[in-house]
Write a structure and sequence with these properties.
Layout (H helix, E strand, L loop, with lengths): L2 H12 L1 E3 L17 H22 L10 H29 L2 H23 L16 H26 L7 H27 L19 H21 L5 H22 L6 H73 L4 H33 L3 E3 L1 E3 L1 H12 L8 E4 L7 E3 L1 H17 L7 E8 L2 E7 L34 H11 L3 E7 L3 E9 L4 H8 L2
Parallel strand pairs: 4-6
Antiparallel strand pairs: 1-2, 3-5, 6-7, 7-9, 8-9
Length: about 550
Amino acid sequence: MSITQLKSDISRKSSKKKLAPPRQEIPGLNSTKTTSLHRRIALFISIVLILACLVAYRYAAISGPTQPAFAVIFTVLTIFAALLTADLLLGQFLSTRLPSLAVLGGIYLYVCLINISYLLTLPKAFSPYGLFNAGLYAPSWLWIFWQVGYSCGIFVYVLIEKRYTKVQLSQQMTKRVFLFLVLAIFLLVLIFSVVAIDPYHLLPDILNRNPPPVFLPFVSIIVFGANSVMCVSAFFLLRSHSVLHLWLRVSILASFINVSLSLYGSGRYSIGWYVSRIDGLMTAIFVLYALLHEINKMYMWLAVQNEKLAQQNRIQSDFLSVVGHEFRTALTGILGFSEMIREGNLDGEDAQEYADDIHNDAIRLTRLINDLLDMERMKSGRVEMNWEPLAINEFVRGIVERTFIGSQRGQIQLELDERIPIIQADGDKLTQVFTNLITNAIKYSPEGGTILVRSKWENGTVHFCVQDHGIGIPEEKIEQIFERYTRVESNATRYIGGTGLGLPIVRQIVEMHNGNVWVESNLGEGSTFHVEIPAWPLPEMEEAQRRL
């Protein structure tokens, strides 16, 4: 098979490869993935909850001491935990604009407000029968509204999360949804509170008449059924491995255990009632702490990103100054020499010299503009690869002979491994790689310094080295030289021209060939730039090569 046939074969299969644009997503609770530590802690808490439920099960129906103060303290802590959770989740909704977070934040706001009503109507808390003449049944009704409302809300959240996972609301719509949600929940809790107080005694009995009063069977079935549906939907429909969903499942498990023990126990102040409240509250506080810890990590991440962004802005400002200087220098030369030529007072030799200077400055500007355009295309992901078979040794020799013909004789030395076969690469882009590396080596080497270009064949990979004996690079600056717009500034390099685009372009092109580039350098002794690229970057290329 000839080289022309090989090139045609490869072109039909994979003629172009596009570089995907980089994406960087600001993390949120719903997008932050869990770690093994997260999962172990969640599993440990779940096991503790289940064991506590099993231990308390046989004692759940035993009546405990009547302690209204415990109910008040528990409810107050529940209110604060729910309020903080609602504030955290609604804050996430305002920043991410994901509708599912609005629903989840609204659920915890509902829990907070319904518990306020529960606290105010609790017998023996503020008055013998609760405030507003609530009576004995109002707290029980509000507890039912709390549990059923929470279960239904979680079910709605699961449905919206599955259907609208990637949907983002507009800024204006986000504000409208937030205001509507808060007002609607306030109104809903107000209605439920009035209904629970039942001033006209219209509600049916939900407790039996025997001491201690417990829920009638149909009430227990409704509440337990709603919680069961909530658990099934959360554990089997939420497939995301996010931190938010992990801790939400733990909260839902605690809520299910809370309801189960409360319904099985013999009413308020039974052992089951006490255990369920303690388990639920401790879980709510721990989950809230876990979410706040994740939020704190996000803010730390954002602080680091802001610092990097500020540094990048400074680098870009310096880069614009350098580019402006390069343009101004080249244009000044072009204008000056062209003005002398226009005056016509030059002999042929001087005119030719000035024309050469204008030509060199024009090439300099063209190269600078091409570098800027290439960097912008790479940044936006609009780069295309045109694969072709290359005899890489002849390719490198051609670059040196064409591009660096003006270098001092013998300054660039070649040591090329003749075992290297024909490889698959983008010739135009590899020309940029070698041109940039050799140009830098010449630029930063002393007058008459030797530049060594070597190639080596290593197990299907071509390894190139461009070595100089110039000023070298400080060790702390080595990682920075491949970053956009970065130049290593020192007394030795201050008056050497350049924009800092060459090496970032080199790295991007090498990575597009599925290769790697790095540098070894000693300050004052010189630098060696290494480039490794596979001979066949794409599988179909290797298959075609084997058919040669």
